[in-house]
Known about the structure:
GO terms for molecular function: metal ion binding. InterPro entries: Pirin, Pirin_C_dom, Pirin_N_dom, RmlC-like_jellyroll, RmlC_Cupin_sf. The chain is mostly beta strands and 311 residues long. It has a single domain (10-243), classed as Sandwich (Jelly Rolls). It is 4% helix and 49% strand. It contains one helix and 28 strands. The longest helix is centred in the last third of the chain and has 13 residues, at 261-273. The model has no long low-confidence stretch (mean pLDDT 94).
Amino acid sequence: MTLAGLPASVLLPGHDVPLGRYTTVRRLLPQRPRRMIGAWCFVDQFGPDDVLGRPGMQVPPHPHTGLQTVTWLVAGEVLHRDSLGSLQTIRPAQLNLMTSGHGISHSEESPIEHPPVMHGIQLWVALPDDARHQPARFEHHADLPSASTAGVTTTVVVGELAALRSPARVHTPLLGAELLFDAGASLELSLRRDFEYGLLALDGAAEVDGAELTPGGLLYLGEERTTTNIRSADGARLFLLGGEPFNEPLVMWWNFVARSDAEIRQAREEWATGDRFGVVRGYAGERLPAPALPTTKLKIRDRAGNTLSEE
């Protein structure tokens, strides 16, 4: 516990991962010390990248199962296509939420005429067992609940915070919110004791209960907090993750979230040879082939990263 009686926070450094031919992302989840925050099981932060005169984001059609994708932009535009027939450009302060259910495929690309800077995050939410076999769906929300007070603007992307509720449909108690701080602004934020929380910086720097937070890392705040104090001397844009601890075991490999090695292998085979994930129409290029599976069995892990035996 900290001096203030709060759980000790842990700063988790990310690492760079190439995404497609033109984009490198900063992967913040999963990490060995912390695989999940609530049902949030994957976080990639990208940019700010200068894409003037360049292709920008170009991610060919690829499959998903067992998860939701959340796309949030600070700058730039991304054109989403999926096997449901969705065609949607997302811009800053808008939400694209894709629920894979049993299976979906999609592509993500910068439009031919696109802004000069690309900057944002993409996150995955693990679906609970009672939702992961449902039909796929796609949602776009151009207007999200937002409020400003004392130099801090809060926008709720998913879930509910400070009487603001997002229209996005999720399947576990969950929170995702952007916190935009003016220079010198501070905030005492009320939290749910039954949630765990994390914060990342998209722009600028902040002090969170005495810990410094800058872009490139994820500050895990732990469980059983009821408040956190945040201050930014020069202004900052933060993203708050929260959720009820997700206690279902998971196997994560490539673009799949499942419950066993056999499920992953079946999903890979059906992407290669079957029609489970549908077809993305209109993308000018080939779909993404799946990488080779390891020769050993994929491990089932709990939310802390402990290996579990397969019953």
